[in-house]
Every structure is written in structure tokens, then in C-alpha cells.
Specification:
The chain is mostly helical. It has one domain. Helix content is 71%, strand content 0%. It is built from 6 helices and no strands. The N and C termini lie close together (10 Å). It comes from Isoptericola halotolerans. This is DUF998 domain-containing protein. Keywords: Membrane, Transmembrane, Transmembrane helix.
Length: 197
């Protein structure tokens, strides 16, 4: 299996893993809490590995594919997305908002250095996807891909903004907004690798 197919499958497996893990995790609310919270607790290693494997596969795929993804700039932005996913796994968020069970149902005033690094990495992840899609809209020759990439750019860009506000407001649906944004973006990235393969 080529590195591009590995990257594609890793994108889709990432979504399946966090959905199944979230649905079966005691005390975790898939609707309220973000994917990153799954890296906490006794089973947290599973989401950490999910971040690391998916990010490494995407980064490797982008490096190997290069211009085969559509052009060099697109490969670079997708590669940055992969590196940021690895960083999201390397630096965990802090326990908060009731997870893991027993954690106060609030947001701490002070956060750890690894939580802050996780936040920065997450900002890169969720910015790189719509930016990649915008670049693809310009760079890819196929009309269908231009349209699909444009829709993806709009949906993931809007998802980034809505999730950011929902997180700040501690919305009970913040996790659902984030997961929907991830599903749209990771599906597109995976199909981009399939196109290159």
C-alpha cells in the first residue's frame, strides 16, 4: 500500500476511532466534549496514538506525494496539518469541564504549558484544513474538485469559527460542532490523497 493510501485510510480511521471511543467511554459526552479530551483518563492512550499515527501518515504522505497532491504549496499546507496533528497528540489538553469523571465542571483559570501547546497545535490543525481546501480550489484542474474543495473550505472554515465560539461559551454542543467539522475536513483530505494515488 502506498504512503498516499496509508494517509487516506488514516484520515478516515481517525474519525472512526474517536467516534467509537467516545460512544463507549464512561463519563464522556460526544456532544459536549472535544476529541482531545479522549486523550485523558485510563484509555487516553488510544486517542493519543490516533493523533500520532494519523498525523505521521499525513505528513509522510504529503512529503512523498509532493506536487502529486495538486501543487507544491498544497502539499506543504497538508504537511503542516499533519505535523500539527502529531503535536496535538504529543501535548495533551488539561482535564476540565467534567472530564475525566470527577473533574470540576468548569474551565480552569490557569492551564499547563502542555495544554497551551495543544491549543496552539489545534489552531494550526483547524486552520490548515480550510487553507488547504482554498489552495486546492485554485490549483486543481478538475472542475468537480474545485467545487468540492470550495465547499470544504467554506464548511471547515465556518466550523472553525462556530466551534471556537461554542468552546468559549462552553456550549453543550461544542463537541458535536467540532466532530462535524473534523468529519468534513478529514474526508476531503483522505480523498485528496486517493486522487494523488
Amino acid at each position: 500500500m502506498s504512503s498516499m493510501w496509508v494517509a487516506a485510510v488514516s484520515c478516515w480511521a481517525f474519525v472512526v476511532v474517536f467516534l467509537v471511543d467516545g460512544w463507549t467511554r464512561h463519563g464522556y459526552s460526544s456532544v459536549r466534549q472535544p476529541v482531545s479530551a479522549l486523550a485523558l483518563g485510563r484509555r487516553g492512550w488510544l486517542q493519543t496514538v490516533n493523533f500520532l499515527v494519523c498525523g505521521a501518515a499525513i505528513t509522510t504522505g504529503a512529503l512523498v506525494a509532493g506536487a502529486d497532491l495538486g501543487n507544491g504549496l498544497l502539499a506543504v499546507v497538508v504537511g503542516v496539518f499533519g505535523v500539527a496533528l502529531v503535536a496535538s497528540g504529543a501535548f495533551r489538553m488539561d482535564p476540565m469541564r467534567g472530564y475525566p469523571p470527577g473533574t470540576p465542571d468548569t474551565t480552569p483559570e490557569d492551564t499547563s504549558w502542555h495544554h497551551r501547546l495543544h491549543d496552539h497545535a489545534g489552531a494550526v490543525v483547524f486552520t490548515a484544513v480550510p487553507v488547504s481546501a482554498v489552495v486546492a480550489t485554485i490549483a486543481l484542474p478538475e472542475l468537480a474538485w474545485k467545487g468540492y474543495s470550495g465547499v470544504t473550505a467554506f464548511l471547515t472554515g465556518a466550523g472553525l469559527l462556530v466551534f471556537g465560539q461554542a468552546w468559549e461559551d462552553d456550549s453543550p454542543r461544542a463537541g458535536l460542532v467540532q466532530k462535524a467539522t473534523i468529519a468534513v475536513g478529514w474526508l476531503w483530505v483522505g480523498l485528496l490523497f486517493v486522487r494523488a494515488a
